[in-house]
What does this fold into?
Amino acid sequence: MLSEDGTVMLRLQGVTRTFTLAGVELPVLRGVDLTAREGDFISILGPSGCGKSTLLNILGLLDRPSSGRYFLEEREVEGLNDSELSSLRNQKIGFVFQSFNLLPRLSALENVEMPLIYRGSSAHERRQRATELLESVGLSDRGGHLPAQLSGGQQQRVAIARALVSDPVVLLADEPTGALDSKVGRQIMELFSQFNTERKLTIVMITHDLDLARLGSVRLGMRDGLLGEA
Amino acid sequence: MLAVNAREALRSLAASKQRTLLALIGVIIGIGSVMAMLGLGETVKNEALRQFSQMGTDVITVRPGFSPENEARRPQALLPKDFALLSRYALSVRSVSPEVEIFGKVRAGPAKFEGSIKGVWPAFAEINRLHMARGRFLTPYDRDSSFAVLGHGVFNKLIQQGAREPLQEITIRGRPFSVIGVLAPAELGHNSQMVDDAVLISLDMAQRYAQQPGVSQATVRLWPDADHNQAGAEIESLLSRFKGFPLNLNINSPRQLLEQISRQMRLYTMLLAAVGSISLIVGGVGIMNMMLVSVTERRREIGIRRAMGAQRQDIVTQFLVESMLLSLTGGIIGVGLGEAVSLIAASAQGWQPVWVPGAMLLCLGVSLAVGLFFGYYPARKAAGLDVIVALRAD
It folds into this structure.
């Protein structure tokens, strides 16, 4: 169920993305419309290769649409340069990856602090904010551990804390439980739900697991580059 | 931000110790050899200057210049009496010894050689700070005596060739001379070689042999506070006045010689430092190689940082900090090692060790510049990576 009121956090209008491989045009997204309002938990279901990741890359400002329009907080993203996109990623977008993607040489706390470095926060501010976030994912006692010293579930919690440390407009999750066993995966999903309901965090998650997709407030399916009801 | 960069750079360097060490060695050798060359060059220069200044910087040499006018006026060439006047009237001149030089055969028993015989005034010994190994030097009372004083080199040569000791008599151009003294080896100085290899007789005696009555050169000792250039001008103008026509003189001061030596040493040092900088370039290439490998290995990290909002410039800075930290570390060790080498070499030679803070700073600056220069390309490459591709890298 899409909420009809509330602030629009992001909006896609007829977004296409076509890759050219060895001279052959390969349309991956073929006109995607999507609106996410504050507090939506959108799960996008689809088989691999259907264009889910490309969609997420576009939403995360890592890729640009071939055509169509993308509004982030009602601001059109088209035409922004690399530096402006980097700043937007830093301030508006939180990423959670399947493989956690923590930096192996940094402690959990330093990993969470990392995005704040790129916006010039003071060391004190960074520490304080990162500590808060680690606490909110239940890892306040693991701040000094290196990723390799943490379990998979703990690593993903650190990654979630890192994604949320900059207070983003939207959290983009790419198969966040794909590398975890089902029990731990469920705990991570509970964390997502908790942030979604308690903090009105907007989440867009892609998955190929129907059970997980059910947790979202909005379920969409993707097939052949088009988005529809699941 | 820079502090965070430096901390993470240290960790990243520490994480690949072997590679870091290999890259470090290149820089250490490069900077170390440049530093050692600069330090040694400075030490040698100082040593040469010290020795030369010991031998007396207050002595200048005056020679008639070779010009058509001088050739035409040969009969009026500079005579000993002109220099007698000079020592009386020139304010900057403490003492003078004109010399008349002749060449001829010298014999002592079976020993003989062809060489330089100098007619000098008694002041010659004091001016050139000569010491006697035995006997005595010429005095004003020996003007008309067939007395000879042998340079240290000449004496040795004659003895080697079988002259019998004590050497009491030699012949010069067939005329007998009594040997009244032998000089001690002359100290290093601008006249030392010439004095060691000469037979000294009185100026008046030499003039009888010489085809020309003219003086071949004069050594002049100045008062300690005299300025060399002013003294030279005074000598030239006074002698010109005595002769009644403008003279063209060659005036050499050891100070000029010192400057020449310094210049040569500087050139020599530069040359050595240039050789050192070639190994520095090799070190820099080592850094570049290591950083390129590092960028390839850390593509994923770069992708993650970019996804979290790092600007391209942030990535460039991160890698530059790393390469500069590496090269600066190599530079510090290299400077220490190079300085140590030059100090050890100096003390092994018994030279005064010299600290060269300027060269040390220079070397540290150069090592930073090497890190910046050779780190820039890998850093640009890291920043230019496609984020999506980088995120997918192993």
